[in-house]
Amino acid sequence: MPLRVLSGSNVERITSTFKPTELLCLMAQVFDAVRSSPSTLNSKESQQVGRSNPPRSATQTPHRTTISTENHKVLFMPARMAANSAEYDNSGSTASGTSIKIVSVPKASSPGGLPSTTLVIDEHNGSVKAMINARKLTALRNAAGSLLSTSLTITNNTPRRIIAFGAGNQIEAHIDLYLRFFPGMQNCTIVNRTVNDRFKSLINRLSSSFPKVQFTPLENTPATTEVEEAVSSADVIICATSSTVPLFPSRWVKAGTQIVLVGSYTPDMHEVDTDLVKRATSRHLEGHESNVKPFLLVDSWDACSKEAGELIKANIIRDDVRELGELLPRDPSGRLDLAHLNASLLSKQTAEPADVDRQSDFTGPVIIFKSVGIGLQDVAIASAVVQKAEEFGIGTIVDGYDY
Hints:
Blueprint: E1 3-6, H1 8-15, H2 20-33, H3 43-52, E2 59-60, E3 65-68, E4 72-81, E5 97-106, E6 116-121, E7 128-133, H4 137-153, E8 161-165, H5 169-181, E9 187-192, H6 197-209, E10 214-219, H7 226-233, E11 236-239, E12 258-261, H8 274-278, E13 295-298, H9 301-307, H10 309-313, E14 322-323, H11 338-349, E15 367-370, H12 375-392, E16 396-398
């Protein structure tokens, strides 16, 4: 049994071939599989879940194992998504497989980042069939989930201005995918704590890839007014930091803004303040007239209720949120309708930008997507990368690895 080894450069070559819609449909299969149990939904949704969701045994996400070494905390994260829980037509990838992701988290600040490897199992014979450099795959699958949330909730206006907080792989993957999906985007502001070499390199790479977009790098200091202006005019705000204090106040954010929160993953972390979180819930906006519908979306309520600091501090309850899988289109039998989703995504991607006059309302509804990550996303993206590698003949083959 041969082993396919995919280096970082191999992975970048493969992921560059994914169309945004292909990645979104891939993640849709994951979010469909992890929807809440029927007891958390209304009667109509409960009937659909009974027909469309796979049995819980079809998806397995054991709790991660942690081993401490001298310099790192090493995380082992296994997961499985059965083939019968992820159907797609011939135009895209199927989010199924078994894998384990291994991530080494430095105990102190390290310029080497987070070493990460995913092993993909051959389900027919049980052998490891692929070893993948996964340093950037986590960021890519997170970006695809975020963009899926935006595409499902965006109104008739095509976003033109985006602002991002952070300068790591998460921000690069998010901006790259959003700009590819929304070609009418004109302005991109990136805010970081310091204008360091990594920040400058990020701006240079993105400017080279998207020459028609105006990029503005900003340092996030209390005295700067440029950050407030950029937040106030943004159509999309993306936050990917480990901040324990809000990055900006709610009063800077205009009603109707799409806000993506992917950085915080503990109860002590807060990228936005409580007032902004409450503006995404109907319960806290009773009596406020607006043509914008508030949305507080999560990748998984079970995970976010335990790990999302912003939601915990705001005392968000289950009735305040919708899981992303609940918004996906379904066929008459209640199953995920990927053909319909793909067509809808394509229509939004090709829509002409339109000037929509958003009133200067800085207290009204906003749309927030909060993600702490789902292990099945790792299975989906790793399996899709291996499928592409096999199709294109990419990677180093170790013959007779397991015989």
